[in-house]
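Standup notes, protein team

Yesterday: finished cleaning the Rhodococcus erythropolis set.
Today: Acyl-CoA dehydrogenase family protein structure.
Blockers: none.

Input for Acyl-CoA dehydrogenase family protein:
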Amino acid sequence: MTTALTPNAVSRSADPIKSEVDYETLAAKFRPIFADIAQAVVERERDHVLPFQQIDALKKAGFGAVRVPTTHGGSGASIPQLIRLLVELSSADSNITQALRGHFAFVEDRLVADPGPERDTWLRRFAEGQLVGNAWTEIGDVALGEANTKVSPAPDADHFLANGAKFYSTGSIFADWIDLYSQRTDTGAFVIAAVEARQPGVTHSDDWNGFGQQTTGSGSSVYENAIVQPENIFDFSTRFKYQTAFYQLFHLATLAGIAKAATTEISRRVASRTRTFSHGNAPRYAQDSQIQQVVGEVSSAAFAAEAVALHAAQSSQWAYEAAFSGSPEEEKAANIAAEIDSGRGQVASIGLVVPATAKIFDALGASGVSRDLDLDRFWRNARTVASHNPVVFKSKVVGDYEINGTEPIYVWAIGTAPTEKDVQA
């Protein structure tokens, strides 16, 4: 039997960021940029043009600092407000939301870090517009739970050197810094190394070849004696505890935004269509009750996916605030709620959005599959996002919690599975 978890009566011994701004005021600052981003999204998708200009516009407008307190030059947005913004951004271009996922996770980690000059330095960098990319996953022969990427003390110097290679380096090609998961050679500790992205020892490649989310900059990155300053190495054990749930919120926002964009696009095309079928139900296509039903189902899926994302975001906000509560019991309960709710959200949203983005073709017929329209991007992108963090495992985690009260795994890894011989040893 599970215990009910509710984000009520959060005790606070510090002053975590709650909502410091009205959402409409916050969103109004970025909506013109979102509109510009949406203008050429089809061309970028079709011609594989990375959104450097679009991300730069967001960067200059302070989008990367929306979670930073107003006292440190940011917008002071809560996590639910951030997710609402990301749904709107994803409706314009779902690739950009995913490209910024690693940045906001690093920001979140710095927000819950101990106060002091080092934290203030990072908050200032975010307020100045500096962005952080993500480079955690390795491919090839890396063992499960290990990291082939290493950081080592430089001989006769006061800095460290990073060496290794990463795949799925999402957003790093656009970034000023890279959140690099690695292992220290001197202590064996797993760490995050904040690596300056534009130095001679770092190489970025746009070699991600998935059929969806093609312009996220999720290609490989290579580190050859890349310099890392000691103050930019953080023990992974200190990473913010609701990180997996927080990362998943970006996928929930992305799926919701894709569904909203698909609804807008299919509605517009149905409304303007002049041709109809002899065996249809109305003289005008837009009046056909069965076509209206299809659009209504897609719209309803988009509505539900956004509601799911925002509900899950409330649990992560509780986890954020509980980090300041001084109560280990409350923090644990909040972290469980954030993880379970993000998992439930993943299962629910995938089941809504992936079918809905395929259903739009039922409303247009053969003309809807024209490559010029690129309407398949909605399904391709949704299906690609849905393939992150395999949904079958999330269903299992939620089910195990509901049946047995099993605490979820907060941080998971991917790599070569141990052999039977390794397990026996």
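Follow-up from PR in the comments: The longest strand covers residues 177-184.
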